[in-house]
Amino acid sequence: MVSTDAIAVALTVSAALLLRELIRRRRSGDNFDEESEYSGTARNPDALESADDQALEELDRLLEIYGADTD
Predict the structure, then answer these.
(1) Whole domain around residue 15: which residue ranges?
(2) Residue 17 in contact with residue 23, Cβ under 8 Å?
(3) CA-based nearest residue to 19, from 8, 11, 31
(4) Sign (positive/negative) of CA torsion 54, 58, 64, 68?
(5) Radius of gyration of the chain (CA)
């Protein structure tokens, strides 16, 4: 019973600390999404439609490693 009590106390403390951090961030107005430079869009979406020689060689190597028939 001692170990379950210790685990319960540890989980309660960690939940309280996480809740405190969430409340602190909400109050300070930290918004990390606006600061991010990542837009989620591809720089050149047309380049994704064609594979270069290096990509095809890597695909062949992976197919050989995992036993797929390349013919």
Answers:
(1) 1-32
(2) no
(3) 11
(4) negative
(5) 25
Q: What is the pLDDT of residues 32-69, one digit of tens each?
A: 555 567 777 778 888 778 888 998 899 889 888 887 66
Q: Can you give the pLDDT at residue 20? A: 96
Tell whether 14 is covered by a domain: yes
Structure-block tokens of residue 19: 């809740």
Report which of residues 26 and 15 the model is more confident about: 15
CA distances from 27 to 7, 39, 52 (A): 30, 26, 50
Q: Which residue has the tokens 């309280």?
A: 16
Residue 19 lies in a domain: yes
Q: How many structural domains compose the chain?
A: 1
Average pLDDT over residues 17-27: 92
Q: How far apart are CA 53 and CA 51, in angstroms?
A: 7
Instruction: Please indicate, yes or no, if residue 24 is contained in any of the structural domains.
Output: yes
